[in-house]
Write a structure and sequence with these properties.
468 residues, alpha+beta, five-stranded parallel beta sheet, 19 helices, 38% helix
Length: 468
């Protein structure tokens, strides 16, 4: 029998989930090989080099929360100091145009959240009271909601006025679930509110990266393991004794890739006809139902085929002169008719502690509308509308005029996250094969597609592999 130190495990995918699994298995004495199609660790939260920007960009702007305990612990285990690499700010939301502001005082939880809601500027007394009553109702319900509820239905049932929806609940829903409130799963939204606003006071702190996302910890994780970059895996064949990956034998494997990729890699194991049906969700479900084999496999095939996706767009701006925001992260007011689709604005230069330059990032969550405009009107028109949105709202907020833009780089991730709709059946980490586990923010973590969910899924997959 092999000793644990001699066991070989493959991790397919060097994103946050895959690398979290790799570190956990390395610490348990396994020989870990990470197979990654790209050239940079981090997956959908990674560094992107660009010659026209002073510091590396990210493929999308991300924030963390003080509630992300597993991610913070993993950073410390890898020697990456969260206090140095993350700007920790008390929960504060403020619009660039000055119309809305909410700040949580340094009070014990949950008084800090209640005080923040009751003191919010831009909400009248009725809206503040309604927001507080919603939080209290969710607390009494132990943060559970009816399974079929959307966030919009939850807000309507609890009488949330339009101002509270516009300035508070809808921005939080888009930021956390990347899904419009009319479609978003109320249960997942309630879980986010529970762990951020209703947990320890520090749990609601905003943690904004001061370094690129790969440098936060994925670089350090990759250094622990053998990582083979530029490897496109074609086939994963698990059985009770091990896993073959493109013909190479391993004792076990963690599949940490998006669900559609996982379905293709496992097509032979799930059924030969399944791979041909991936382009049509209904056909995929029918194929999974027809195919013989373990019931668990049929469920996995259907679940992998059941995801829809939501894009995120990030516009990075290098300004011709230094320019500061009052806060490192601010809200933008949307106006769809004018192409003002931005929801969040980040001061990249301030986060990097470099007052000599001006760099901003405009983030558009659930960016299907922007993607359609991009196809219809072209990149220049979309970029110009977002720059106009920032300039106009900064002027309304009493800020100096926005300097001219020296360089604009628009990044659109068409499959940034899964669409977090009610009733979505997400697979767990275990599979019918004890030698193979799944990892990713799309697995059934109890959270939407957030970084903490990715880390926890990887660690859970590693624990299952080690236990098996």
């Amino acid at each position: 029998m092999k000793t644990p130190a001699a066991r070989r495990v493959a991790v397919v995918g060097a994103g946050w989930a895959g690398l979290a699994a790799a570190v956990a298995l390395h610490d348990r004495g396994w020989a870990v090989t990470v197979l990654e199609a790209g050239r940079t660790p981090g997956g959908r939260a990674r560094r992107v080099a660009h010659p026209d920007f002073d510091a590396p960009l990210d493929n999308g702007q991300h924030i963390l929360l003080g509630a992300y305990t597993d991610t913070l612990a993993l950073m410390r285990r890898l020697g990456r100091d969260p206090a140095r690499l993350l700007a920790r700010l008390p929960l504060a939301l403020a619009s660039l145009d000055g119309a809305f502001r909410l700040r949580a005082p340094r009070l014990p939880a949950p008084l800090h959240a209640a005080a923040a809601l009751l003191g919010a500027r831009g909400l009248d007394g009725a809206a503040r009271g309604a927001a507080l009553r919603l939080m209290l109702a969710l607390r009494r319900a132990r943060w559970e909601t009816p399974a079929a509820d959307s966030v919009a239905a939850l807000l309507a049932r609890h009488g949330q006025p339009e101002s509270a929806v516009r300035w508070l609940w809808e921005p939080l829903c888009l930021a956390a679930l990347n899904t419009p409130a009319a479609q978003a799963d109320a249960r997942l939204f309630a879980h986010v509110l529970r762990d951020s606003l209703a947990g320890r006071r520090a749990a609601s702190d905003l943690l904004l990266p001061r370094a690129d996302l790969s440098a936060l910890w994925p670089d350090a994780a990759a250094a622990l393991c053998e990582v083979r970059y530029g490897v496109t895996v074609r086939c994963v064949e698990p059985d009770a004794r091990g896993v073959r990956i493109d013909g190479d034998a391993y004792d076990a494997a963690v599949l940490a890739v998006p669900p559609a990729n996982a379905a293709r890699l496992l097509a032979a194991a799930l059924g030969d006809d399944f791979g041909d049906a991936l382009g049509d969700d209904n056909a995929a479900h029918a194929s999974a139902a027809r195919h013989g084999g373990p019931e668990h496999d049929d469920n996995l095939a259907a679940r992998l085929a059941g995801f829809e996706y939501s894009p995120i767009a990030t516009l990075n701006l290098r300004l011709a002169a230094p320019w500061r925001l009052p806060m490192p992260m601010m809200m933008l007011r949307e106006d769809a008719a004018r192409g003002h689709d931005g929801q969040w604005l980040f001061d990249r230069a301030a986060l990097a502690n470099d007052p000599a330059r001006g760099e901003l990032s405009v983030v558009v969550s659930a960016a299907s509308r922007l993607a359609g405009r991009l196809a219809r009107d072209g990149r220049d028109a979309v970029v110009a509308a977002l720059i106009e949105q920032v300039g106009e709202q900064a002027a309304r907020g009493g800020l100096p005029a926005l300097p001219s833009v020296a360089r604009a780089e628009l990044l659109v991730d068409k499959r940034a996250t899964f669409l977090a709709t009610p009733g979505l059946a997400r697979p767990g980490n275990a599979t019918a094969w004890p030698t193979l586990c799944l990892a990713g923010d799309w697995t059934d973590t109890g959270y939407p597609a957030v970084l903490e969910g990715a880390v926890r899924s990887g660690q859970r997959a590693a624990a299952l592999i080690a236990g098996a």
